[in-house]
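Protocol step 6 of 9: fold each sequence in the batch and record its structure tokens directly after the sequence line. For illustration, a two-sequence batch is reproduced in full.

Sequence one:
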Amino acid sequence: MTTGAPATEGAPWVDPAAVAALFDPVVVVAQAHVGELAFSELPAPARDRMTGFTVPLRRRTYTAGRLAAARATAAVTGLPQWLGADEHGIPAWPVGTWGSLSHTNEIALCVTSVAPDTGLGVDIEPLDSAGELHAAVRYVCTPAERERVAASARPAEAVLRVFCAKEALYKALPARDQRGLSMRSVELDWSEPAAPYAPSTLVAVTGPAPGAEARCAVIGTHMVAAVTLPSTGLSRGRPHPGASGQSGARGGKLADAQRADPQPA
């Protein structure tokens, strides 16, 4: 199921049906443009816990994420739910729903499901961020992953795929399993795609969820990764390590990865 407002002319937009196709079970997908709604226009429960956000871009991306979540939860529950957050900034999903948020500097994406005890993780990255991530490969990849990246015909694309998959995987984990994780806490295995930016599946071989699969696909001008972790007793929040409940902006994500894992292997 998909939902969301029409794209504005010239703005990036992701095909929600293509995002939903990456998930099993069925999810609702919604999105919002950064700047579509002002931070001051958020309902108080969604705004008050984040008054410490003083950087304008961070406020805009946070607001877009909440707007996307309101659209997704409206499709599930019949009413838009403006997500609040706990003391750590982790989104508080309505009872009986599970979800995940991600954003770039221009667009926010939300996936939501009512499948019982399901950990969802989504990540969206601009394709043009591949070079920046490749420059930070030692923060993103384990030594074994770096060897595979170096041997790849398209190393920047490979790092982007690994980063996107790990972001989605970390968000799908219960909050209790995220403590102390860095980008190199999970090692992934994958087959080299036959064509540039072809869909692919990456599998966790080490870390808190061995065997977990991340499905990656290029949708428009973005790479999107999806992870579903059927489990029981999942905690409500699913941020990536070092973040406050949803993916940070491009520069913020790299900064988080570097702070979480500052020493080269």
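Sequence two, same batch, same settings:
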Amino acid sequence: MPDRFEPQTIEMALKAISGAISPISQTEVIGLSESGGRTLARAVLSPKDVPEYPLSAMDGYSFHSQSLDKTREEKDLNLPVLGKSLAGHSLEGETHATAAARIFTGAMVPACHDTVIAQELVRIDDRQQRITFAADSIRRQANVRRQGEDLARGAEALPTGAVIGPREIALLASMGIASIEVVRRVRIAVLSTGDEVTEPGRPLAAGKTYDANRPMLLQMIRDCRATPIDLGIVNDDPQSLRQAILHAATIADAVITSGGVSVGEADHTRKIMESLGDISFWKLAIKPGRPLAAGWISIDSAANKRIPFFGLPGNPVAAFVTFQSIVAPCLRQLAGDRGGIRPTVRARLGKDARKAPGRTEYLRCALVRDANGEWVAEIAASQGAASLKSLTDADGLVVLPHAAGPLTAGTMVDVILL
């Protein structure tokens, strides 16, 4: 078994934390209009056929395809027009299987008909109220949305863990569903540590730096569809930090700190974490973001109740990368969320990339198209762990795999889109 205080691969780290996280069980029922971004607590089964009746897919004329049997394909078909069907209304008048009916998009197809021909394909005799069209211009049962074509009654419309977006809202509304049961939003406590950290907007004393991490992490938590709890800045006093983390654990489902986990501070923070619970690992085999502490804070040892803890690096880019690679998947697991993974593209390296095997590296890059329309990843000149400008200018992060050595220009790589 690997030493938990040796640098862990991303896969090992996720297995140690995410694999041990159980999704929260509390749920709530909310209105459909408020459900965007929420996670379904249980599968939704369709209460009805969708559509509930056969509907016309276009403006035209409905008729029964048996009429096509009465004429040869090369001949014209001539039918009387009886009745009219408008969207949202019952059939006006009466029709029958040997007649046609005027019909419009979204209208119910008369029970005695099974085919709709587009109005531009027919010749209309208004005086005699008949239509004529070529028998070979229409296939049987064309232009009709069948009953239950989209969803049959009792079929699974959305699975447990689905994240509700505009498409899901439209689907639920089409079934007449006005409210759904969702997982309670995950609550994540965030605090920054360090005597050198100052709240943005306040005067900056000599030797101090503004806290960029906490505002960034609060927004990243929102992007994960969770609720952030801002606990501000805590100084380097061990007792203050311990009390702040204990308080955070009583009001949140997970705790995130930034700063205080580098080599020079490790013993200090490690003792606090060990006194509160258990450390799963202390370092990641990645760049940027090597100093990452993760483990568990014990809430009720008798009941074996605990919540995850993440101690992120103090450098902003390192905090960003470690959140994306480790924390975000864990938060999705905590929420029972099946979505939210950042998309990736394949691209060619625009220049050589120096790298030694044994760690995964994330390089900020711009994405450009070459003459063939393929993506090329142009690696940014600045890759410092504190260089926020290069992060905001980047289109993505080139992923250099753990086992890879130096890579030459033109090598295909994965790029995580930002």
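Proceed to step 7 once all outputs are recorded. Observation for sequence two: The longest helix spans residues 316-335.
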